[in-house]
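pipeline/complex-builder :: batch 7 item 3
reading input block
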Amino acid sequence: MTLADLDIGWGWTLAIKTVIVMGLIPAGALVLGYTFLLKMMSHMQSRLGPMDPGGFHGWFQLIGDGIKFMQKEDIIPAGADKRVFKMAPAVVVLSTFLMFVVLPGGPDFVVANLDVGVFYALAVSSLSVIGVLMAGWASSNKYALLGSLRAAAQLIAYELPLVLAVIGVVIQAGTMNLHGIVMQQADGEIFGWGGLGNPFILTQFVGFALFMVAAQAELSQPPFDMPVAESELVAGYMVEYTGFRFLFFFIGEFGTAFVYAGLAATLFLGGWSVPFIDADDDIMNFLGPGVLFVKIMLVAFLMFWARFTYPRLREDQLQALAWKWLIPISLVNILATGALKVAF
Amino acid sequence: MTDETATAEAAPGPSAESTALLERVTAALGADAIVESGEACGDLVVRIAPDRWRDAATACRDQLGFDYLSFVSAIDWMPAPTLSEEGSGDTSSPVQPKDQTYGVAGSAGRFQVFARVASTRVPRSGLTLKTDIDETSPSVASWVAVYPGADWHERECWEMYGITFDGHPSLRHLYLPSEFEGHPLRKDFPLLAREVKPWPGLVDVEPMPGEAPEAETEAGEAEASE
Amino acid sequence: MTLGTRPAGFDVDPSLYRHLADAQVNVELDTGDMILNLGPQHPATHGTLRLVVRLDGERVVASDVVIGYMHRGYEKLTEFRTYPQITTLINRIDWLSSFANEVPFIHAAEQLMGVEAPPRALYIRTVLTELSRIATFVLFLGEMGLQVGAITPAFYGFRDREYVLNAIEAATGGRFHPNFNRIGGILTDLPWGWIAETRESMRKILKSCDDFEDLVVANPIFQQRTRSIGIIPAELGAAYGVSGSNLRASGVDWDLRRDGKPYLAYNDLDWKVWTHPDGDSFARYWVRLQETRESARMVLQLLDNLPAGPVMAKVPRIIKVPEGEVWVNTENPLGEMGYYVVSKGATGPFRVKIRTASLSNVSIAPWLLRGVYVPDVITVLASLYFILGDIDK
């Protein structure tokens, strides 16, 4: 059952899909932020985190923070380039929106089932670099400028391992269509046994590791958070942003984490499919999002765990890691995958 | 020579280590550079002639093995003038003697620069050096070329006492804002806080609502005109 | 290295002393260098320290340290106060290890008066000094991780510091500013159960030092960020007056508890001085970690051998210290702290020169920061470990 079956016309379809995506992003950011940033981090650091707002373990904390940000004064620095300053957060969040377009939650539960889904998702994710550069330059603040230049170098450098890691998956699946990739994993077999399907993490473990590291860098999270180095640049390129503009950046950061985790879950863990239930079944349109959500939480757990544990790499060490280690390893991974794909 | 410690031998006189160290200092610098020497609770204090101040540093570092600079600072021996004419409001500050006396190893006048050096290789080693500063034109050679750490200490001396150091790359304020006027640690620079409101100040007691205000007591705050 | 040969960089380079502090901060970007202001409000500068750096891209070309935002005029204030009043004041010089600040001053007054504190008082002073050392260092172990980017060690540092602060508060009444020393001894004796509690706390501290070793020291990213960063050559460090763990991390085997004039109860203890040959930021972290462990072991030894007896010697009610001069320096957590007290027989001193460790430790920063990256500036400053109150007095 798709929205097309409902026969409501393309206008309504578009409206419904837009509303769902626009609702998902803050919701995803909220859930990730609360669970991992507030609660998991606190417990790992021998403290409790928010306990009061909303009653049960402070679940209302982030929503309250959001409302607080919305009602703050809109301060733009005097020397800032106003138009660029205002547009920058929008550009960053825009790339998150666009990535959600291809993320499938079920066999028909997707905004647009593009045949070049993977390619599109990765291409569109690099739009955020422009937003970061705009933010840093328009702020008329040297700290912001330093942060955004670091971010530009870092994000561009880590695009390559990200893409190259995914190529291994594409080779193995034989398609760039995300629906197709999920179906391949759901219908696949491990050495002849089809019970669990064939999640690509089993064969593409190198690719998974590379993807996680590169995604960590793309999200500017420790150990790759030089652009936002809190103890040096005091929020880096976001330093002059307050109120709802900062909220945009915040939602963008965590929403993008949600989407990257979603991509990882789709490409490597089998997306919305569950073993023992036929992937084409209509029921998956309702179960799928839940399953995908669970997998997203698992992947995000890894991301945030690394975030709270490691110190940050210096800029040149970061670049060295990308260019001297991750890219060669990913190239070897592609070679191996291609060879094995032809052989078997 | 004066001996201030009561925990060492009962007979007055410098300890054996101080005497030995004094001999080494004299040998390194020459007897003409040393004006006077003394012992402060077991530590040797040597007063150097003002024009040999830089040589003393070099000798300390190269010949005597004192590679560590503890500090360079200054003393103003003038007794602090009474703050205001009629019974200054400040009644709790310790009353210092009114005559200008000098400490261990004496002094030629009001200002002295003194420094402490030590060795990181020999335990319980160290030397305090003093030198006299001319009050009318307070100036002495800088130690920066010998002990780079003297840089900040001499800047502090300059801003607090007004003593210039020849050879210092840039004598500017260290603690105080660049526009600050005056040299605070000089004894004639008053501590205004104690002058304006003597310690302990009387508390203004607000009357309860409806009550008449209390009669003002005299000998209260010395509201010095500012 | 023999004395008399000056190592490279020993000579003062006048071109470093351009008046960077007076430079306009938000200057238009010229084609060459950029002037960046770190502080006085900045998370990395441990207080109100201002660092003006001239950057070429991400490399520091020259830097200037501007201090004095917290100058309280202690040396002037001491000229107007009695000795017990000064004890309250000097607690606040280095506020993380406040008990340790009082010790050299009280010792100086006692030397001038010829008074000796009874052995029990000396032992308790030693215990509290070592507890302050542990408190300071555990905070350092945590927040140096924070400065290089790891959020978690900072929380562990603060949590472990609480054990020590609770012990200090139970004994003296104040977590941060105990004001517990008196000329001739200490204020009161220890409360019931304090010794057992402190023993337990020391065991927890030893365990958390192991945690720091696993979490921070063994972390490859931390090592990458701190090894070979900010190397202080031993001779240069000594000439600048760098002291304490910073100098020991450059291989200089010098600790005033063992090598200075004997003070407190250190001679009765069996302990070790830790040094590291490298002199980089990692060495400074490692030395402080080992010293924390050593201090915990020293406290356990002290508590085992605590002598009985009074805690205060017989001193007159109004303390008048006889005429004289004295210099007392001790190994404080941040380095060598000393007081040169000139007394003229009054109830208060005539002049007190306060020699603080952090002033000299930070004065080497312009030399250290030439040619490093901006992130390394943070690492170097964090590893030097200064407290603004200690610098600015």
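note: Residues 1-31 of chain C have pLDDT under 50 and may be disordered.
queue -> next item
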